[in-house]
Amino acid sequence: MRYWTIGAMAVVLMTTACGRKDASPAPETSPATPAQASSTAVGKSPTLAAIKRRGRLNCGVHQGLVGFAYTDNRGQWRGFDVDFCRATAAAVLGDADAVRFVPLSASDRFTALNDGRIDVLWRNSSWTMSRDAGEGFVFAGVNYYDGQGFLVRRSLNLNSATELMGARVCVQSGSTSQANAADYFRSRGIEYRPVVFETEEAARDAYGREDCDAFSADISALAAARTVLTNPNEHVILSDVASKEPLGPAIKAGDERWASTVRWTLNALMLAEELGVTKANAEDQFKTTKDPRVRRLLGAEGEFGPMLGLSDDWAKDAVEAVGNYGEIFERNLGSQSALDLARGLNAQWNARPAGLIYGLPIR
């Protein structure tokens, strides 16, 4: 009898344990659905709301850099970065002319962004760790892959910047150029004499007066500087690339929805080139294409614009305003411009030879 009682108790205990193991534990919290998570994680953009109230985008640009941002003889703003400002205004307000261009120096560009004087900075600014993690600015992408180089007189017969031992090198203060030049020469044990100026224009003019032997800046800026020098053919950009300079739009931290708006405007223009959507054919593509990628891009299907607080055809408005990425490049920096720069790293990822321009998918 004692043995039966012990055995029965063991069976009861085992059955109870198994029941506890198989039972589903009560959840600690109710998980949010994807829609709930999205709505709580991303709210409305105060920057976008302010832009819509005033009916104008405030866009920070260079004070005057041929190819990127400058005023023509009629006082109209032109250039690569200027076109991206117009594209952003078109995407947000449906009007590429609803933009106020704010010319900024290298030293006050980020202050203007932080103070709220501008909504976005489209001003050939390098995406660096200190600006991103240290100063807290948000870069929404890269619209031009550049590098720092050296402009010298052809008469010097130089083959490399490593031959600039003891040379006077003009650079701009308050930019990455001064630090990059110092790193370049220091790492190679080359002594040089930096000649520092407040603005890029002042550094260029000093080089033109032969106050220095070389001018160091982003290669695109050197190409622009050469076009305005007396006898441009007397100057050459050396093959040395002293740094990586990923240039792109920056916004003030704290408004992720606005960062997404700028980011996807840039990506839409890149994607438009990849998919063959141009300023001239965007409307026809919108009406007739059966390609789902193009239909989503132009707003013929899906509801992607409202995710950003924009209209369904926000990207179509941007492309129709300034063209796709390739059109913007060729008109301002490429074969149709005075700079005549090759696409190089700024070619599409699937071009031959391939570049780094890669539009993120809209889906």
TrEMBL record:
Q: Which residues form a coiled coil?
A: none
Q: Which Pfam families match?
A: SBP_bac_3 (PF00497)
Q: Which residues form the Solute-binding protein family 3/N-terminal domain?
A: 56-284
Chain segments carrying region Disordered: 22-41
Question: Does the record's keyword annotation contain Transport?
Answer: yes
Enumerate the SMART domains for this protein. PBPb
In terms of superkingdom, the source organism counts as Bacteria
- Which CDD domains does this entry report, sorted A to Z? PBP2_BztA
The UniProt keyword set, sorted, is:
Signal, Transport
Please note every region of biased composition (Low complexity): 24-41
**Transport among the record's keywords?**
yes
The record's family statement is: Belongs to the bacterial solute-binding protein 3 family.
Report what the protein is called. Amino acid ABC transporter substrate-binding protein
UniProt organism field: Brevundimonas vesicularis
Q: What is the lineage of its organism?
A: Bacteria, Pseudomonadati, Pseudomonadota, Alphaproteobacteria, Caulobacterales
